[in-house]
Amino acid sequence: MAVSLVEVRNLSMTYRLGAGMLGRTRLFRAVDDVSFSIDAGKVYGLVGESGSGKSTVARLVLGLSRPSGGEVRFQGEDISSVTPARWKELRREMQMVFQDPMSALDPRMPVLDQVVEPLTIHRIGAAAERVAGAEAMLASVGIGLELHGRFPHQLSGGQRQRVVIARALILSPRLLVCDEPVSALDVSIQAQVINLLADLRTRLGVGYLFISHDLRVVRHIADDIGVMHKGCLVETGPAENIFRHPQHAYTRALLAASPDLVPRRCQKGPIAPGVSAGQPAGHRSDCTAISSARL
Ligand SMILES: Nc1ncnc2c1ncn2[C@@H]1O[C@H](COP(=O)(O)OP(=O)(O)OP(=O)(O)O)[C@@H](O)[C@H]1O
Predict the structure, then answer these.
(1) pLDDT of res. 269
(2) Distance in angstroms (rounded) separating the CA atoms of residues 189 and 141
(3) Does the beta carbon of 159 sit less than 6 angstroms from any atom of ligand 1?
(4) Please, which pLDDT band fits residue 215 given cuts at 50, 70 and 90?
(5) How far apart are the CA of 252 and the centre of ligand 1, in A?
(6) What percent of the chain has pLDDT over 90?
């Protein structure tokens, strides 16, 4: 059987919160027994309301935090037990695009240099090759030559996010973790950036962990979807199955919150009481994940 690009097994993350009234440290389980996999070149969309644990999963997949339980395997390798040398390679193979492009870019560095820099850090190619590679990558994300000398504050939000995407993809990663990559952009620009990401994954064969609270965005790009609720993955499966035959009440509630996307028959199921997209997560629920089988 082929090895998955990413395999997340029984992942949990418990945060220690400050001492409560009686001076005891309180624990908060932000991610609870989450399992899913992403095949090479595929897009796994992780959706859920604010606070449901999506970004925590992203940090764990990237190895930026240590899980309290479970493991993340990247191309079959447990990322918690790799050597420092292998870790450096993994840093190159896993790249990320976050919501705020401004924080991902150096405000004092012109656009072209921003994309050359990762090649320099990883000592890839000679100086002239790095520049040629960066120019080609900027062209493929739709950033013309006239913008190469500009600084981040001289770009629009959409242009900035394109530069961030070019900077991430210049290293030819196998995985791109996109955490709310378009939520800071105008709706008209969101579609352009999503189309660009969809096009790039097809052309470059890179797999995505694509996180969004917005089902409309995820539907455009994801092959498979996982629905998170209060730290648990309550449903996972092929995107079309999730949209057409949602099994979990919370998934139906999320779909009902995006009525323009829901096929009419999906709106008939019972809606979980008191749940809507964008509501902060409160107490834990039961964590029974429903796997939506391929039809
Ligand atoms: N370092 C931390 N210490 C304590 N609690 C944390 C920490 N980081 C996140 N949390 C909590 O864990 C829960 C999950 O947070 P996370 O950022 O993963 O959610 P999310 O689904 O990505 O939300 P959003 O869409 O708003 O970014 C939240 O309740 C959050 O307050």
Answers:
(1) 35
(2) 13
(3) no
(4) confident
(5) 23
(6) 72
Residue 13's DSSP bridge partners are: 31
Q: Which residue of 12, 16, 52 sits with most ligand 1 atoms within 8 Å of its CB, as the best mutation to test the pocket?
A: 52
Separation in Å, CA 261 to CA 188, 207, 237, 275:
17, 25, 18, 18
Q: Are 173 and 38 in contact (CB under 8 A)?
A: no
8 A C-beta contact, residue 97 and residue 161: yes
- Domains of the chain, start order: 4-257 (3.40.50.300)
What single DSSP character describes residue 261?
A: G
Coil, helix or strand at residue 26 = strand
Q: What is the ipTM of this complex?
A: 0.95
Segments in 30-186 forming alpha helices (H): 54-61, 84-93, 101-104, 111-121, 127-140, 157-169
Nearest CA, atom 3, ligand 1: 15
56 C-beta closer than 6 A to ligand 1: yes
With bands split at pLDDT 50, 70 and 90, how would you rate the model's confidence at 47? very high
Ligand 1: does its nearest atom lie under 6 Å from the Cβ of 29? no
* pTM, 2 dp: 0.86
